[in-house]
Amino acid sequence: VRRQPIEDAELARARDHLVASLPAIHETNRQISEALEKLVLRRMPDNYFAEMAGRLAGLRARDLSRAYRRQLGRAHIAWLIIGDTARIAPRMSSSGVGIPEMMEVTG
Predict the structure, then answer these.
(1) What is the value of pTM for the model shown?
(2) Residue 43 Rama label (left phi>0; alpha psi -120 to 50; beta)
(3) Helices in 6-103 by DSSP H: which ranges?
(4) 1 within 8 A of 74, measured Cβ to Cβ
(5) pLDDT for 39-93, tens place per residue?
């Protein structure tokens, strides 16, 4: 879980990578049919993929931070940590991620 803001350089690298990879998402007949299926099943506009590069170019760090808080904020995250309870529990308690729930597994 990230506390510091997204840096402009990091966002630019990620955005540039996604835009550069867009042509590869519709290379095969299967990829094209799956994209059409998404458009129909999710009731997306016909120009969704054609305008994707423009939408990605318009993304700003504040937009991503807002979406993160709405979709992936701490309340929506569950951690599964496997290990020695005696060693892990103290660090979990002091990390601020919430109250650990211990489960014993046998077998």
Answers:
(1) 0.57
(2) left
(3) 8-21, 29-41, 52-57, 61-72, 85-95
(4) yes
(5) 999 999 999 999 999 999 898 988 888 888 887 766 666 777 888 878 887 877 7
